Amino acid sequence: MIEKESKSVSLLIRRYVMLFIGASLAAVALELFLVPNNIIDGGVIGVSLLINHLSGINFGILVLIINIPFLIAGYRRIGRELLFSSLFSIITLSIMEGFLQRFNTITDEPLLATVFGGLLLGAGVGIVIRNSGALDGTEILGILVTKNMPFSVGEFVMFINIFIFAWAGFVLGWEQAMLSILTYYIASKTIDAVGQGILNETKAVIIVSKNPDGIAEEIGNQLKRGVTIFYGKNNYKDTDTEVLYVVVARLEVAKLKSIVHHIDPKAFTTIMDAQEVHGGRFKTASH
Fold first, then answer.
1. Which of 28, 130, 241, 282 is 20 to 30 A from 13 (CA-CA)?
2. Rg of the Cα trace of the chain?
């Protein structure tokens, strides 16, 4: 029992160390590459940078203030683990951004700033999401507002980012807006590389458990996802078994694993990339 608790504490400490590293990398990308060259990212970070440019309000404070309502509103959907991890990451980003202001910009060449800023930002965000955190509440907002709308979360996020980059064109100039779009693209690809598949839009999950009905019911209640039950046979024990199949958004994976572990710690769970999802009422998320 003591060994199990010690292992849990060790994993928790490791996760928060990685969250700190990821948020710090994102702060370096923003403060030493992107912001000094008037280049932005999408989502809450992009909005915060634009407001900072127009008003002079501290960027770190803006990121924190804008993100918190989304995290609180989505608490039931994303779970306590993601909420606390995200708050820690966002606060770290805010503090590190203020600390890095005393250092000189690494490069004044816009293209170099775009490429290396996008790489560092994507790496930082990827590390954070890989460790059950988030630096941007846009997807959480999308999950909430598209619940009863004929749009996917990905379409909602794309619309928001189109608006942000168009706004950037008027505020920062169209060349800076184009560089910002390039930064967003580089960061997105880097997130996928760092996450090693964890950050794809959707995940297909197969669960083999002795309590399939209980797991299916909780997934329906907490994640509002439909679960398909297949009837199979355990070749090793020569017994009939039920196999659950469900598709979830990437931000819901941590919550789903928590549900399964709570009901049946010995359940066999396989999580796979779902490259495309069509039909039904499923709504996906994307960076």
1. 28
2. 20
Query: What is the pLDDT of the chain when averaged over all its residues?
Result: 83
Give every strand in the sheet of 228-234, ordered side by side: 228-234, 239-249, 202-208, 268-274
**Location of structure tokens 């995200």:** 86
Cα separation, 157 vs 154, whole angstroms? 5
Locate 21 and state its tokens.
Answer: 């590293």
Q: What are phi and psi of 57, to 5 degrees?
A: -65, 140
CA–CA dist 49, 176 (Å, integer):
13
Q: What is the Cα–Cα distance from 64 to 44, expressed in whole angstroms? A: 9
The mean per-residue pLDDT over the stretch 205-218 comes to 91
Domains defined along the chain, listed by start: 2-195 (no CATH), 202-274 (3.30.70.120)
* Residue that wins the pLDDT comparison between 141 and 24: 24
- Per-residue pLDDT reduced to its tens digit, 117-137: 999 998 998 888 888 788 887
* Cα distance between residue 233 and residue 251, in whole Å: 32
